[in-house]
Write a structure and sequence with these properties.
Layout (H helix, E strand, L loop, with lengths): L1 H4 L5 E5 L3 H9 L7 H12 L8 E6 L1 H4 L9 H7 L3 E5 L4 E3 L7 E3 L5 H10 L4 E8 L7 H20 L3 E8 L7 H21 L8 E2 L16 H15 L6 E4 L6 H11 L7 E6 L1 H11 L6 H19 L6
Parallel strand pairs: 1-2, 1-10, 2-3, 3-6, 6-7, 7-8, 8-9, 9-10
Antiparallel strand pairs: 4-5
Helix pairs in contact: 7-8, 8-9, 9-10, 10-11, 10-12, 11-12
The site of 1,3-dihydroxyacetonephosphate (13P) has 10 residues, from helix 11.
Family: Belongs to the class I fructose-bisphosphate aldolase family.
EC number: 4.1.2.13
GO molecular function: fructose-bisphosphate aldolase activity
């Protein structure tokens, strides 16, 4: 499964926004956060003709895994018909980590074995668990340990139930720190994540990673070029991630659409030990939403906008993108 997702020129469409986050996206184009609007939007995404040429997997929120299109096909069937493997977000979101420096931890381990078994029956073949680490708030030893341990338990439970786990400790972009500080924190986080993955007997060949790129903080005045981002990120990953892991699928984390594509392209200018690709939400969907605006007559144009970004990132996976 993880090997089919990590195939040449392909990446993941992250469309697993929780209902609350999806509501924020809909609000940005003046739509109410109703189930019907979420359905219309997700239907637009999964029925985009030819999307499977660039996208190998799509991560769904639970609502979408069990949802049908307005003409009665399941969203899962639409994805499969497009040659796209359905995945599922299985974490239950972030809550305050008491005893820390205003940091968070990720909930969702209770009942995860039975939920993942049910998601598999419903057609999901891979899973995602996103936890976050904040640089301005620490990160404290406690927050990093909690994040890494949670990811490792989740990955083990998924593998036991037939889902390939995506391991995602997102290092948030917020802050005015420089790129060297991000490198230091990312190195620390990934060393703990792999320590606990090994302690929990997770099969490395059966996971995918979803890291943040190593960049300066969003408010840092000194910006980095795509070549610098690629060099920092790959150095960090080569020091921390075994080559047994088949795929590295980056999140976009608030980068602009073109920035995320250029950075990925720079990482694929020379061979890597893994398939280095994308698992973007915002960097694939921003122009889709703006083009759609909730109007049925804009659906085709919005689907074309999705294909433009998907194709650009597919080329970036091959190291062949130019802006
Ligand atoms: P962004 O690409 O918008 O950061 O989202 C990816 C994702 O799925 C975060 O979990």
């Amino acid at each position: 499964m993880q090997n089919s997702i990590a195939s040449k020129g392909k990446g993941i469409l992250a469309m697993d926004e929780s209902n609350a986050t999806c509501g924020k996206r809909l609000e940005s184009i003046g739509l109410e956060n109703t189930e019907a609007n979420r359905q219309a939007y997700r239907q637009l995404l999964v029925t985009t003709p030819g999307l499977g040429d660039y996208i190998s997997g799509a991560i769904l929120f639970e609502e979408t895994l069990y949802q049908s299109t307005t003409d009665g096909r399941t969203m899962v069937d639409c994805l499969n018909a497009n040659g796209i493997i359905p995945g599922i977000k299985v974490d239950k979101g972030l809550v305050p980590l008491t005893g820390s420096n205003n940091e968070s931890w990720c909930q969702g381990l209770d009942g995860l074995a039975s939920r993942t078994a049910a998601y598999y029956k419903q057609g999901a073949r891979f899973a995602k668990w996103r936890t976050v680490v904040s640089i301005p708030n620490g990160p404290s030893e406690l927050a990093v340990t909690e994040a890494a341990w949670g990811l490792a338990r989740y990955a083990s439970i998924c593998q036991d139930n037939g889902l390939a786990p995506i391991v995602e400790p997102e290092i948030l972009l917020d802050g005015d720190h420089g790129i060297d500080r991000t490198l230091e924190v990312a190195s620390k986080v990934w060393s703990k994540v792999f320590y606990f993955l090994a302690e929990n007997n997770v099969l490395f060949e059966g996971i995918l990673l979803k890291p943040s790129m190593v960049t300066p903080g969003a408010e840092c005045k000194e910006r980095a070029t795509p070549e610098q981002v690629a060099q920092y990120t790959l150095n960090m990953l080569k020091r921390r991630v075994p080559p047994a892991v088949p795929g590295i699928m980056f999140l976009s984390g608030g980068q602009s659409e073109v920035e995320a594509t250029l950075n990925l392209n720079a990482m694929n200018q020379s061979p890597n030990p893994w398939h280095v690709s994308f698992s973007y939400a915002r960097a694939l969907q921003n122009s889709v939403l703006k083009t759609w605006k909730g109007q049925p007559e804009n659906v085709e144009a919005a689907q074309r906008a999705l294909l433009v970004r998907a194709k650009a990132n597919s080329l970036a996976q091959l190291g062949k993108y130019s802006a």
